[in-house]
Specification:
- The chain has strands spanning 10-14, 27-36, 41-49, 52-57, 60-65, 72-75, 79-81, 86-95, 100-107, 115-116, 122-123.
- By secondary structure, the protein is mainly β.
- The strands form two sheets. Strands 1, 3, 6, 7, 9 and 10 form a six-stranded antiparallel β-sheet that branches.
- Strand 4 (52-57) and strand 5 (60-65) form a beta hairpin.
């Protein structure tokens, strides 16, 4: 089954799933599209996930934690982006059992903390 979501990747389904048609456990999701940087510089990306997560930026795997785990923060190294240019992004998520959380965050250049990547900066088909 395929469910299409276009909002920010900032979900906590608790013991549920993204859709009533999907099981609460053992489902997966993939977001593919483009990400537009508001400023030029070094970005860091972070996920909060309850179970498996992988993130690619411009085809480079920057986060890889494809394991069963409780809510866990994983942070990328530095990724150079240019203001106004769209980088490719792919996020893969696997819910094995229990809670279901996937949140995609960034820290822009000069930023002090991570915030959810806003939907208006993500171009998902």
């Amino acid at each position: 089954m395929r469910v299409t979501r276009t909002e920010a990747v900032d979900f906590n389904w608790g013991g549920g799933s993204p859709s009533a048609e999907l099981p609460a456990d053992n489902f997966s999701a993939r977001w593919e599209g483009r990400l537009e940087a508001p400023a030029t510089g070094a970005y860091a990306f972070q996920t909060n996930s309850d179970d498996g997560v992988r993130v690619w930026i411009n085809g480079v795997l920057v986060i890889d934690n494809w394991t069963v785990h409780p809510p866990t923060l994983d942070t990328s190294g530095s990724v150079a982006l240019t203001a106004g240019q769209r980088a490719t992004v792919r996020i893969e998520y696997q819910e094995f059992g229990g809670g279901a959380v996937i949140q995609f965050r960034w820290r822009p250049p000069g930023g002090s903390g991570f915030t959810a990547v806003p939907a208006n900066r993500l171009y998902l088909p």
